[in-house]
Design a protein that fits this description.
The chain has 188 residues and is α/β, with parallel strands linked by helices. Helix content is 53%, strand content 15%. Helix 1 crosses helix 9.
Length: 188
C-alpha cells in the first residue's frame, strides 16, 4: 500500500495534486469530507470554522489527535490512497507510521490563492481578501485550535510551490510519484 498525505495552505492546489494522483490510480479520501458527513449527522452547518471545531471535538473525544489519519487508512479500499487535508502534526505522524506513507505539502503566494478561492466558490470560504488573510494566518501559525499547517508543511517529505500553472504542477507531482515508486518498489 502507498499512502500520500496532502497538506498545505488554503487554495494552494491540493485538489489539483489529488486529481493528478487519481489519474494514476489513487483513491481519494479527504479529511473535510469525513467531517462534512459527521456535521450533517449532527445537523451542524458545514462552515470552515464548524468543521474545524468538529474535527477538534472528535479528536478530543477519541483521545487520539491522529484519529482522522487512522480512519482514512482503515477505510481504504485500494492499495494506493490519498489522505487529503492534513492539518495537524499528529495526523502526519499517524500517517507516517505506515512504511509507505509520504506527505506532500502544497503552497502558493497568498494573492494567487485568494483568486483561486474566489473562483471555486465553495461554501464557507472567506469573502474578502482581509478575511482570507486572517483565516490563513490563524491556520498557518496554529492560532486556530487544531490547525498547524506550517508545522505540517515542515514535516512533509516533498513541498510544491504552485505558482507556475497546472502543467508545471502536474509534472512536479509525477516526478514525486516516480521517486515514491522507486522508494516503495511498487509500480506507479
Amino acid at each position: 500500500m502507498i499512502i500520500i498525505g496532502l497538506t498545505g495552505t488554503i487554495a494552494a492546489g491540493k485538489s489539483t495534486v489529488a486529481d493528478v494522483l487519481k489519474e494514476k490510480g489513487f483513491e481519494h479520501y479527504t479529511y473535510s469530507n469525513i467531517l462534512r458527513m459527521e456535521a450533517e449527522k449532527r445537523k451542524i452547518p458545514p462552515t470552515r470554522k464548524n468543521l474545524q471545531d468538529l474535527g477538534n471535538k472528535i479528536k478530543q473525544e477519541s483521545g487520539n489527535l491522529g484519529i482522522l489519519s487512522r480512519l482514512l487508512i482503515e477505510n481504504a479500499e485500494t492499495g494506493k490512497i490519498i489522505a487529503d487535508g492534513i492539518r495537524t502534526v499528529d495526523e502526519v505522524k499517524e500517517l507516517k507510521k505506515h512504511p509507505n506513507a509520504y506527505v506532500i505539502a502544497v503552497d502558493a503566494p497568498p494573492k494567487l490563492r485568494y483568486e483561486r478561492l474566489k473562483s471555486r466558490k465553495r461554501e464557507g470560504d472567506p469573502e474578502s481578501f482581509d478575511e482570507f488573510i486572517k483565516i490563513d494566518e490563524h491556520e498557518n501559525k496554529g492560532l486556530t485550535p487544531g490547525q498547524e499547517i506550517n508545522k505540517c508543511i515542515r514535516h512533509a517529505d516533498f513541498t510544491l510551490i504552485n505558482d507556475k500553472g497546472r502543467k508545471r504542477l502536474k509534472k512536479e507531482v509525477l516526478d514525486i510519484l516516480e521517486k515514491i515508486s522507486r522508494k516503495s518498489h511498487q509500480p506507479s
